[in-house]
Amino acid sequence: MTPRTTGRAEQAPPATTVHLPRGGPDASWWDRRFETDRVEYIDRPDAEARCRRVLRGLDRFQRLTGAYRVFSRLALAEVEGVPEPRVLELGAGYGCLARHLVDRHPTVRITVSDVNPAVVDAVRRGPIGHHPRVDCSVVDATAIDAGDGAYDLAVLTTSLHHLAPDGVAALLREGTRAARTLLVVDGWRSPLLLGAVPLMFLTGGPAQAHDGILSVRKLYGSAALHALAERCGAPVRLRTRFALPGYLVATAARDPRPPRRAGG
């Protein structure tokens, strides 16, 4: 499936979103201290070997914890009743979620995408890249090169914390433009998730544990996502909820209602 391209991106969100705490506008003192801006190996161009180890470790961790089953269930619920749903997976890594989706839905068509060309090339050469209902593409989740409504669903899992607040605002704006629904799943913002770090070490070694600790400290809270949806420069409706064992699930779509006029 080749999505239609669009010419010009929508207006960028206000610069004030850059300084929003990840716990939300009213985040407590301890929450702001818990937050970090240290860069994970997976986001460092100079750490390619460690990045590959982290991706392999993350894949093992997701398999062991049943995360892909949770993600696929949440994604398929959003396209229930759609005869041939078109899904854009953002930040796909090795494309394991896509494999679960095509196994569980007989007509779904998926574009597996990542901003890293090397990752996309690896997926394209692998088994999921040869599936007749799967396409592979390099896509920036904050500037999606697709026409309005090109997809029924855009989905981003365990990657939201890699984006700065202005990037999250752009994702909300672009994801709800290019797809009817945007589904985002990431960890629930809580220090309790640090309890999973030993398992991360077992599945991916020191590099995975390093990135896991930083990921927990960089997760977004529900209040932050709602604040960014209000400031993203588009009329976005956002719903957030908790899902076991420790996920923040956010679904977003464009609000069809016209904006209210001042004094009206």
What features would you describe in this structure?
By secondary structure, this protein is α/β, with parallel strands linked by helices. Helices cover 38% and strands 18% of the residues. It has helices spanning 29-34, 48-65, 67-78, 96-104, 117-125, 165-178, 197-218, 222-230, and strands spanning 86-90, 109-114, 134-138, 151-157, 179-187, 236-243, 247-254. A seven-stranded mixed beta sheet has the order 3-2-1-4-5-7-6, sandwiched between helices. Helix 4 links the parallel strand 1 and strand 2. Helix 2 (48-65) packs across helix 7 (197-218) and helix 3 packs across helix 4. It is globular and about 45 Å long. Mean pLDDT is 90; it is low at 1-9 and 11-17.
Top keywords for this entry?
about 260 residues, alpha/beta, seven-stranded mixed sheet, 8 helices, 7 strands, about 40% helix, disordered N terminus
Largest sheet: 7 strands, mixed
Class from helix and strand fractions: alpha/beta
Count of helical stretches: 8
Q: Beta fraction of the residues? A: 15-25%
What is the overall pLDDT average? 90
State the strand order across the main sheet: 3-2-1-4-5-7-6
What's the multimeric state? single chain
- What is the H/E order? HHHEHEHEEHEHHEE
The level of helicity is 25-40%
Q: How far apart are the first and last residues' alpha carbons, in Å?
A: 44 Å
Name the poorly predicted regions. Answer: 1-9, 11-17
Q: Round the Cα radius of gyration to an integer and report it.
A: 18 Å
Shape: globular
Total strands: the figure is 7
Please give a quick description of this structure.
The protein is 38% helix and 18% strand. With 264 residues, it is α/β, with parallel strands linked by helices. Strands 3-2-1-4-5-7-6 form a 7-stranded mixed sheet, with helices on both faces.
